[in-house]
Design brief:
single chain, about 190 residues, mainly alpha, about 60% helix, globular
Length: about 190
């Protein structure tokens, strides 16, 4: 699970940086991807209750920052200065993927199926894809709002609240801000066949 978290967050941070630096290039890649990847959600409704969307606007961001203690705020601000986009990507992956249906699957029954066999039911797969894609669509709206913000906040200041919102199940605990991958270790050898 840690490897999925690390690799998806690192890849998302690259996409966000591309979106910020070369929006036309980002759009070209996005349209190419939509032609080849399965798209479970064709449209999205704006959900005002989305914590990610609330944190993307100055009023919601200010409220979260004001509730943080001085030590927590100082640590989070230093991390935001050093790794702003990765903090945002970690928060998005944590909110959309890790704190979704995968948590029930991951924490649920222990299966001893070989790696070559399906590990989740079709119903669990549908719920996982539907929930994650809906949440990711909301997250992209939040990223657009952060990028298009007309306020004078710097990029690290814009993402700071995403590093202070653990109470909203947004800020992950102990996630890497620099790893791009992590080795996977399996306790048993997989039989051939």
């Amino acid at each position: 699970m840690a490897r999925i978290n690390v690799e998806s967050s690192a890849a998302l941070a690259q996409w966000i940086d591309l979106m910020r630096a070369d929006y036309e290039g980002y759009l070209a890649l996005m349209w190419t991807a939509t032609r080849y990847l399965p798209m479970p959600r064709q449209g999205v409704r704006r959900d005002r209750a989305s914590p990610l969307l609330a944190l993307a606007y100055p009023a919601g961001a200010a409220q979260v920052v004001s509730l943080a203690g001085p030590d927590q705020c100082m640590r989070a601000r230093a991390e935001a200065e050093a790794h702003p986009t990765r903090i945002l990507a970690n928060a998005i992956i944590n909110s959309c993927w890790r704190n979704g249906p995968i948590e029930n699957i991951h924490a649920g029954r222990s299966s001893t199926y070989p790696l070559l066999r399906r590990r989740i039911t079709l119903s669990e797969e549908h719920d996982l894809l539907h929930t994650t894609s809906s949440r990711l669509a909301q997250a992209i709206l939040a990223v657009y709002a952060l990028i298009d913000e007309s306020d004078e906040r710097s990029w690290p200041e814009r993402v700071l609240p995403f590093n202070l919102a653990s109470g909203l199940l947004v800020t992950p605990s102990g996630w890497s801000l620099h790893e791009r991958s992590r080795p996977a270790w399996l306790p048993y050898a997989e039989p051939n066949g």
